[in-house]
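User: Hi! I'm working on a homework problem where we have to compare a predicted structure to a textbook description. Could you give me the structure for the chain below?
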Amino acid sequence: MNVARKFSALLLGVAAAFCPYASGHAATPAGAGFFDCGGELESRVWTLWDSHGVLLADDLLSERLRQQGDTYALYDFEIYFHNLLSMARRCGRLQRQRAIAALTAQAYAQRSAIGPLASSPGWVCRGGRVCNRRNGLVGTEVMLPSVQFIAFAMNAASDLAQPGASAADMAFIAQTTRIALEHLRRWDDERSRLLLEQRIAARAADVKDGSSRLFLGDKDVWQIAIHAEVAGVLSRYPMLLGKRLDDDDMAALRSRMVLLLRLFKRRTFSTGVEPGYSGSEETGAELDRGFWRLFPDNRYAGYEGAAAPVLCLPAQGATNARGRLEVRMQPPEPVRELGWDISHARRLVALFDALQRNEASVASFHGLPAGLLPSEKVFRAFARQLRARVWNQDAVHPLFSNYFGGTNGWYRVAYDNGANGCTEGIRPSGLSGAFATGGYPLWGRWEPVLNDLARRIYTLSDSQEGSDATLMAQAYPLLTNRASDEVRARSELMFWPALVAAKP
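Assistant: Happy to help. Predicted structure tokens:
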């Protein structure tokens, strides 16, 4: 047994010894079958989906999207259900996949004209908590929710694009692919291409202020995922193209993917980490190192103290008045090599999955030059970084740094997204919950310890032992009884699927 396997076995032994399951989890998963497809945990996931997930999806699509015009419902839809969709595919649950696809398709009817020059309809944000007149988002197509949702929808379509697909499956696949192509084409304007070229050429030193203009962003990552899923579907069903795209359109589609991949490659930075469990020298990877050092969300990344650097005071007067912040300490010096935080980086879980499933199709469909498409070696490097630099190396009480480079200072102190609110910020390791709910346990295929850590968190979530309960209350509160039944169910609906059949 190699060192990694010994450590994994030791970690699971520690978990069993220190944390017997409480009443919330009916039985200790003594054997691997508990986490297998067809095992107890998968059964609990689908029970949770039937009792809470379907109602949540209806609330997102009917109440928030259709009635309120809140397109951030699309953003939340992806976050809540992407890990579930992935589990359904791994376990071969075709009828569940079809049910999720049917819910996804309900959002398509809510598209509308987004302007006189737009070539196709999109989702226009007309209300909700985030879209308001103060931040100027009302009446606009907010790209992030749309691109994130389309990546999810194309994943659902790709999963159904298999031999034996039914007529209803093919209708969903065709409609989803058409919508994805329409959006990709509309977003590929001259201005966005110019900015892509500028970002490809940029270095961290070119960032002079708090603007995100030169960043590799989550919208770029989601576009790459969409391109990958589209390539996979069209390679299997080229007739879906029909006369929708002419030669110039196809050339533009392919060149856009090349630009996006060039940017991703330029912003993937290797980081030396300690020798891995095999004893060989290994390398980790992170995104945008140094580019995010001046971003307002990260002003206090260099501060790792326990006391909040600002105090959030309740609003005075009108009920819709904004809270007031009292600054206790000025921001420290920027962290020179700061890149992505681990919450944003969870997009990489879906991206790497899309690229790996569609690898051959992506390369041939887009005519990619050799070495441009991220390989499994790159995926392993990111997983290694999470294991070696982000995890606190504590198998009993696992925590994770807030930033993917390993920095663990405060995040989003006095954050303002344009909605009324008052936010003191997220303390060191406060983003640990993103490890559990963001799908990272699936990277256990490359770093088995990550899957073991996720199982440990599952065990801890019902532990009544003092230090365990303290850890969970501080770092994973939404997975404990401190959260309401509904909030906990939603969190478990994100976390549990990533534990099922997530084997190295």
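For your comparison, note the following. Residues 10 and 81 are 32 Å apart (CA to CA). The mean pLDDT is 89. Good luck with the assignment!
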